[in-house]
Write a structure and sequence with these properties.
Layout (H helix, E strand, L loop, with lengths): L4 E5 L4 H12 L3 E6 L18 E4 L5 H8 L4 E4 L10 H21 L6 E7 L8 E3 L3 E3 L22 E3 L12 H20 L3 E6 L1 E3 L12 H10 L5 E2 L6 E6 H13 L6 E5 L4 E3 H8 L5 E2 L2 E3 L11 H4 L9 H12 L8 H11 L3 E3 L2
Parallel strand pairs: 1-2, 1-4, 2-3, 4-5, 5-9, 9-13, 10-12, 11-15
Antiparallel strand pairs: 6-7, 6-8, 12-14, 16-17
């Protein structure tokens, strides 16, 4: 398939752009499908996209899918709705229905698509995997965030537990985004097997690097901390800042997309794509800014305490992360300094989350 045509949905997006560049370098032909809608986009194709075929369309629209899939050998399905606002149905209209339509059309039209790679998320793990001294491996279902009890407890004995690396064998999605993402995984593996369409689902950790939008309300720590740093403000840190996160560079993610696209051993499997190491949010804030962070006393509804993925399974296919959060921060800051920041996007994002009840104070 080294010179086949690959369709990348959400191709104008952050991961889509880097994946397109990766595939073009490897000799593929690339077609991008994107609806270019706000807040991520401003109505046009970003000027940093590589030179390839571009198609305006929406993954909720059957006609757009049919046009985009014409002559395609493989699909990297990245298009998704992603934020923390309580517009629940939109997550399923875009993420779940869009993926169902992809498989429906391939089957209905008997299209010769030889591989589908579906983007999932580390957030499908929910609260994740822990070790209890009394009960062994446990999977807590939530935390008492309203009381400021940041650490989950054993669901059996209510005792203290220690976080463990996340394995692909588990899922426990806890919010609208992760539930919709998990539905995409299930469709990729089950429908792919049922109809002989080799498919792979990738659970990305927190992906970072240049071209990451600063306009949407779901603003990850790299975006918010960088925008605050550029204004001379301290980083806004939720909970106590000691929550562990797993950050992976977007170029490593693009390479993971290509690795599973080319590997028959990846078919009908789910893989973690992570950086291989956990950092506390406070540690990450220190990488972005020399200012002491501001711990706000707030928490995000449906957020998890510790999320660090085990990447052993993907490493067996020959993939390794090559970049660190310091690399991601350096490249992102260099890129964002060249962008037109016409308002305080970090403050706007936090205000939207507070107004929607997605970001709350303890008590």
């Amino acid at each position: 398939m080294s010179h086949g045509l690959v369709l990348i949905t959400g191709g104008a997006g952050f991961i889509g752009c880097h994946t397109a560049s990766e595939l073009l370098r490897a000799g593929y032909r690339v077609r991008l499908l994107d609806n270019l809608t706000p807040p991520i986009h401003t109505g046009g194709w970003p000027d940093w996209l590589p030179d390839c075929e571009k198609m305006l369309g929406d993954v909720r629209n059957r006609a757009d899918w049919e046009k985009a899939l014409a002559g395609v050998d493989a699909v990297v399905h990245l298009a998704a709705h992603q934020d923390l606002l309580p517009n629940f149905s939109q997550f399923f209209h875009v993420n779940s229905v869009g993926t169902a339509l992809l498989y429906e059309i391939i089957v209905e039209k008997k299209l010769p698509v030889r591989k589908v790679v579906v983007a999932s998320s580390q957030f499908v793990y929910g609260e994740g995997r822990y070790q209890c001294a009394n009960d062994g491996e446990v999977f807590p279902v939530g935390r008492e965030l309203t009381k400021g009890q940041w650490d989950p407890v054993c669901p059996k004995c209510r005792g203290a537990i220690t976080s463990l690396p996340l394995l692909e064998t588990h899922a426990g999605p806890r919010n609208q985004y992760s539930i919709a993402k998990y539905s995409q995984e299930l469709m990729a593996v089950a429908l792919g097997k049922n109809y002989g369409i080799p498919s792979v689902a990738l659970r990305y950790s927190i992906v970072q690097g240049p071209y990451q939008s600063f306009r949407n309300a779901y603003s990850g720590v790299l975006r918010v901390f960088t925008l605050q740093m550029l204004k001379g403000e301290p980083a806004s840190v939720f909970e106590d800042g000691r929550q562990l996160r797993d950050y992976v560079n977007v170029e490593d993610v693009a390479r993971a997309n290509r690795v599973v696209l080319e590997s028959d051993a990846a078919n009908y499997e789910v893989f973690n794509v992570g950086g291989g190491k956990g950092y506390t949010v406070l540690e990450f804030a220190g990488i972005v800014s020399s200012l002491a962070p501001h711990v706000t006393g707030e928490y995000r509804v449906g957020d998890t305490r510790h999320s660090v993925s085990d990447i052993t399974k993907l490493q067996r296919l020959g993939w390794q992360p090559t970049k660190t959060p310091r690399d991601s921060v350096r490249d992102y800051v260099e890129w964002i300094r060249r962008q037109k920041l016409d308002k305080d996007y970090a403050a706007e994002a936090l205000a939207k989350l507070r107004a929607a009840g997605a970001l709350r104070k303890v008590g």
